[in-house]
């Protein structure tokens, strides 16, 4: 059967090369439409996950505010399900704006809170995002020093020179920066030397099961050494088991984040009633 006949049978447009590419394209369009609808109906929220100081599980170093959207059924959809298709789109910039806005509002309302908010390097040149940031840190004098902006390794390498300049300007205002998912991408070590990130978050693929995985032990040790060399606080992501936590503590990782210490929640402790806190 000719390729053109196969396309007709599968209802694939002529400009699509193969069924897989077409299926991926359809899925991405569906995801983008779902996020656009959530934005239109103000169904975007943050889920908060604690990052604890190693060896002191009850001492929370900061929280990460993870963006979530609600689909048409009201289900909470985590960022990993939609962030890649929207990353380079206008919708991606709007989601960054809403996440930042909600994060800044949370910081303004809770003076003892330190909070990390994710952003794409593409939002640096987005006027609305920059206005939200400036307005938020100007309105409340302590917000900047309690705000951490997380930029993924892959995003930072899209426009590294712009990221370096952006970080330099805002660090003077007291804002901290975290390099997220470190090890998952291909950071140029020349740029890593110039970035001056305050926090380095080691990607979870190297952390899960590390207590029993010699390869991940070597890789995580190397990534942690890089962090220490550049005076960055090291955070291990996706810590899910006690033995992994103990191993990471033993090799000197500064902070730990993952389900072992708490799942992301849209009802963090500062929003819970006394009854909810006592029953937790």
From TrEMBL:
Q: Which InterPro entries match?
A: Cyclic-di-GMP_PDE-like, EAL_dom, EAL_sf
**UniProt GO MF annotations:** cyclic-guanylate-specific phosphodiesterase activity
Do you know which Gene3D superfamilies this protein is assigned to? EAL domain
Q: Which Pfam families match?
A: EAL (PF00563)
**Where in this chain does the record put each EAL domain?**
28-278
The entry's protein name is EAL domain-containing protein
């Amino acid at each position: 059967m000719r390729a053109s006949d196969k396309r007709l049978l599968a209802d694939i447009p002529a400009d699509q090369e193969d069924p897989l590419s077409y299926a991926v394209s359809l899925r991405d369009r569906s995801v983008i439409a779902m996020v656009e609808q959530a934005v239109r109906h103000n169904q975007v929220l943050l889920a908060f996950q604690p990052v604890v100081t190693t060896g002191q599980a009850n001492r929370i170093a900061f929280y990460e505010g993870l963006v979530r959207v609600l689909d048409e059924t009201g289900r909470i959809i985590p960022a990993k399900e939609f962030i890649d298709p929207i990353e380079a789109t206008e919708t991606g910039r709007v989601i960054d704006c809403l996440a930042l806005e909600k994060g800044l509002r949370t910081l303004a309302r809770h003076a003892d809170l330190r909070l990390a908010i994710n952003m794409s390097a593409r939002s640096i040149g987005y006027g609305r995002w920059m206005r939200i940031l400036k307005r938020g840190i100007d309105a409340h004098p302590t917000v900047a020093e309690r705000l951490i902006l997380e930029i993924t390794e892959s995003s930072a390498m899209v426009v590294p020179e712009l990221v370096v300049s952006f970080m330099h300007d805002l660090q003077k205002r007291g804002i901290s920066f975290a390099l997220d998912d470190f090890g998952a991408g291909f950071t140029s070590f020349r740029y890593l030397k110039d970035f001056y990130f305050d926090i380095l978050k080691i990607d979870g693929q190297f952390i899960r099961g590390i207590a029993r995985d010699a390869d991940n032990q070597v890789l995580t040790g190397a990534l942690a050494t890089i962090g220490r060399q550049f005076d960055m606080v090291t955070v291990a992501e996706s810590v899910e088991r006690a033995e992994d936590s103990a191993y990471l503590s033993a090799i000197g990782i500064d902070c730990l984040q993952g389900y072992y210490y708490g799942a992301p929640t849209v009802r963090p402790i500062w929003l819970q009633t006394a009854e909810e806190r006592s029953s937790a």
